[in-house]
């Protein structure tokens, strides 16, 4: 298929349909409203269902119902709306229901701003809802990767029976880039024998639930969930690294911030600096092991985020205190430019080239 | 080679549209491209701008800080983005709505009465196309063929009947440049 120029938010909708998603429940919020706009127009054309719910809380519970009945389901929102969905997300994780949740992050806390940010890293990777649960969290850096990760996300959700969160931001949602829908990424949608599709008198009813009144049983369920998360850590780490083996300074950044960092890297390299990049694509599971390949004599790791330092915690866990960690961030919806990022790098590197 | 462009004006002047046409045309020519709109709690008649990158390499930051070219359709945008043109870069000013000259002496400035030309063509909606024509005449960032193909992609096949008037507007902008209104840096 040839390339088309698409806005990130529309590409989310197109990728979901290409991945076989036929159900969307959501509530509009800037900067992701083009997702429901696109799907309200396109889903009915393929026999799908689009519902604008009365609230984010209703939407996520509709996702629970449709996922429980075996459907491929998508919901999307932006930070304050994702906050409202947390109870439902915890229930989905507890009941092991597959779905894809898109968060086009905006400045916070509270209602915050409508401009791009990355303030939901903790929420996404540590669980914004209650209980010991994990989401598979994927962070695209451009619109093509957004499409690829949405399509992959539906498969991973089904494979692990777990909610998958696509963590983007207002910038990737609003910008246009060429995209291609790669047919070869499409996989068979697996059978869902656990789904509540009607017994037809042939079998015992399937039950979708996250309530276990007996502590022993709930602990057993938790052990099962934790084993699943371990399997994700073994098999689903995704990362891009650049020049980390002999860099004097390594950047750590994800999503759109990472591509801004790449422009800063090009500037610094022109000036003769040796710099590298670790770009986590999966935020859970986190690519801790990649940090082991960093030049041991490297002067430091500079984490750049559109927040006050959240992924920084994972970078610190990864380097085990062996390499100094630095941070540069903008908040409130301000986007860091390549020049200010390069300035911070020069400050750390001193005159060393 | 990388062309980094800022296009700015009032909402409704078509700055997003010509940005998308450039982006599409770049894609048609097999270049790497990105289009990033400003978005905010804007109202009709408020300011609007977009950043376009057309490059031979994968696009890093889609945000344009150091622009090779800046296309300005209204005065507030001139005040805001004049400083973003790199030394030796190009600044295109719509003089129909902007009564001041550029204060920069290290860049190429082109003055285009775009609204007046569009009015002469009896279609005020093609103001943006006059600016686009002038821009393309100077930079040759993409070919006119690609731009015409991009027109159909951006505005849809149903608007192809309006392609001739848009072509004419672009040609008028280009002609103005050829007639040397260029003020040397």
From TrEMBL, chain A:
The keyword rRNA-binding belongs to this UniProt entry's keyword annotation = no
Q: Where is the Pyruvate flavodoxin/ferredoxin oxidoreductase pyrimidine binding domain?
A: 15-201
List the InterPro entries.
2-oxoacid_oxidoreductase, PFOR_II, Pyrv_Fd/Flavodoxin_OxRdtase_N, THDP-binding, Transketo_C/PFOR_II
Q: Which residues form the Pyruvate:ferredoxin oxidoreductase core domain?
A: 247-340
Q: Name one GO molecular function term.
A: oxidoreductase activity
Q: Which domain of life is it from?
A: Bacteria
Q: Which UniProt keywords apply?
A: Oxidoreductase
User: What is this protein called in UniProt?
Assistant: 3-methyl-2-oxobutanoate dehydrogenase subunit VorB
Q: Which organism is it from?
A: Soehngenia longivitae
Automatic annotation (TrEMBL), chain B:
Q: Which Pfam families match?
A: POR
Instruction: Name the Gene3D superfamilies on file.
Output: Pyruvate-ferredoxin oxidoreductase, PFOR, domain III
Q: Which domain of life is it from?
A: Bacteria
The UniProt keywords, alphabetically, are: Oxidoreductase
Domain Pyruvate/ketoisovalerate oxidoreductase catalytic per the UniProt entry, residue ranges:
11-174
Q: Return the SUPFAM superfamilies for the record.
A: Pyruvate-ferredoxin oxidoreductase, PFOR, domain III
Is Oxidoreductase a UniProt keyword of this protein?
A: yes
Q: Secretion signal: which residues?
A: none
Q: Does the keyword Nucleotide-binding apply?
A: no
GO function term, MF aspect, one: oxidoreductase activity, acting on the aldehyde or oxo group of donors, iron-sulfur protein as acceptor
Q: What is this protein called?
A: 2-oxoacid:ferredoxin oxidoreductase subunit gamma
